[in-house]
Amino acid sequence: MDIAQIFTNHHAEIFRYLFIRTGSVETAEDLSSEVFLKLVKEQAKYDPMRSGIRTWLYLLARNLLADHFSRAKHQQPLELQDFTDLAAQGDAAEFVQDWLYIINLLRDLSPEDQELIVLRYVNDLSIRDISRIKNKSYISTKVATHRALKKLKQLANE
């Protein structure tokens, strides 16, 4: 297992997932580092017959995120500063505006629906991978994702 290559290929998307879920650059950086440390420590537990490495990384991230929220007992509010710091390398104004709009819509969804939307449409995971990450059936994941998207569209049209 080439850890450096896995990190290069997947760090940005794991960070993005954690950032959208926590709303904090610092927390997302800490948690994404923990994901890859856990990968190194637990690489012997990885079974490529059960899932791809990308799916396993999201499972590690999801578990660390659950631990983080159980310790924090609540989700930290999103700060505009987090977005401007992150966007400093590109067109910050457009980036911030787009993400604030999306994040504000996501806030009105349940945490379960938020996670489905982020995994499927922000990080482009397949329904099969999401079902493995969430330990749910393919059909229930597909239905739940469809319903979450429908709710998000309704919020966008309000």
Approximate shape? globular
| Mean pLDDT across every amino acid position | 83
Count of alpha/pi helices: 8
What's the N-to-C terminus distance? 48 Å
Label the CATH architecture of the largest domain: Orthogonal Bundle
- Secondary structural class: mainly alpha
Instruction: Work out the oligomeric state of the chains in this entry.
Output: single chain
The structural domain count equals: 2
CATH topology of the largest domain: Rna Polymerase Sigma Factor, Chain: A
Largest sheet: none
What is the ordering of alpha helices and beta strands?
Answer: HHHHHHHH
Return Rg in Å: 16 Å
Fraction of residues in helix? over 70%
Question: In CATH's first tier, which class of the largest domain applies?
Answer: Mainly Alpha
Number of strands: 0
Overview of this protein structure:
The protein has 158 residues and is an all-alpha fold. The chain folds into 2 domains: 1-76, Rna Polymerase Sigma Factor, Chain: A (Orthogonal Bundle); 108-158, Winged helix-like DNA-binding domain superfamily/Winged helix DNA-binding domain (Arc Repressor Mutant, subunit A, Orthogonal Bundle), CATH 1.10.10.10. Helices cover 76% and strands 0% of the residues. Mean pLDDT is 83; it is low at 76-81.
Chart the SSEs and their pairings:
Elements: H1 3-22, H2 25-41, H3 53-72, H4 80-86, H5 92-107, H6 111-122, H7 127-134, H8 138-157
